[in-house]
């Protein structure tokens, strides 16, 4: 009788690839046709997360102070104006990562980008997203 197989490295790699593929292979909305719209934004890149320098979904190193963001469906390189709906403060970000994981949120801003439109302590903020004409 053959002993039962235990998951090995190959199984783990295949499982990881399967888990990451849907996020990286989402079809992009043609021209961001769902923009502009209002939604909840969050931020990521707190020092305790230790993400600094780790590769984003696009392959570039994560920089918590860069004006970049994560989106589930906008193409990498898309520039989006993110405006705090309560204050009118805005920031232009470039999509270079996938997220947010929480489906109630539409965009994850880096710590630096979020800090331009709201206090980091707020954690979440209602924003308006608008596509940029500059690519």
Folded structure, characterized:
With 135 residues, the chain is an alpha/beta fold. It contains two helices and six strands, in the order αβββββαβ. Strands 1-5-2-4-3-6 form a six-stranded mixed barrel. The model is unreliable at 2-32 (pLDDT under 50).
Strand content: 25-35%
Strand order of the largest sheet: 1-5-2-4-3-6
Structural class: alpha/beta
Count of distinct strands:
6
Radius of gyration: 17 Å
Shape: globular
Written as H for each helix and E for each strand, in order along the chain, the element string is HEEEEEHE
| Overall pLDDT confidence | 79
Separation of the first and last Cα atoms: 61 Å
Q: Uncertain spans, ≥5 residues at pLDDT below 50?
A: 2-32
Major sheet details: 6 strands, mixed, barrel
| Count of alpha/pi helices | 2
Helical content class: 10-25%
Enzyme class: lyase
Keywords: Cell wall biogenesis/degradation, Lyase, Signal
Family: Belongs to the RlpA family.
Protein name: Probable endolytic peptidoglycan transglycosylase RlpA
Keyphrases for this structure?
alpha/beta, 2 helices, single chain, 135 residues
Set down the secondary structure blueprint.
Layout: H1 9-24, E1 37-44, E2 68-70, E3 79-84, E4 90-97, E5 107-110, H2 111-117, E6 124-131
Task: Offer a concise description of the structure.
Residues 1-30 form the signal peptide. This protein is of the alpha/beta class and 135 residues long.
């Amino acid at each position: 009788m053959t002993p039962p197989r235990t998951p090995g490295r190959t199984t783990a790699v295949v499982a990881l690839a399967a888990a990451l593929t849907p996020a990286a292979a989402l079809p992009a909305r043609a021209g961001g046709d769902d923009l502009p719209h209002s939604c909840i934004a969050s931020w990521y890149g707190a020092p305790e997360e230790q993400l600094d320098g780790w590769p984003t979904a696009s392959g570039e190193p994560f920089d918590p102070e860069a004006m970049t963001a994560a989106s589930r469906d906008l193409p990498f390189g898309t520039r989006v104006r993110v405006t705090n709906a309560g204050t009118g403060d805005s920031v232009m970000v470039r999509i270079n990562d996938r997220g947010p994981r929480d489906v109630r949120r539409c965009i994850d801003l880096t710590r630096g980008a979020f800090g331009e439109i709201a206090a980091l302590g707020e954690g979440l903020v209602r924003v308006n997203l608008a596509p940029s004409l500059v690519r």
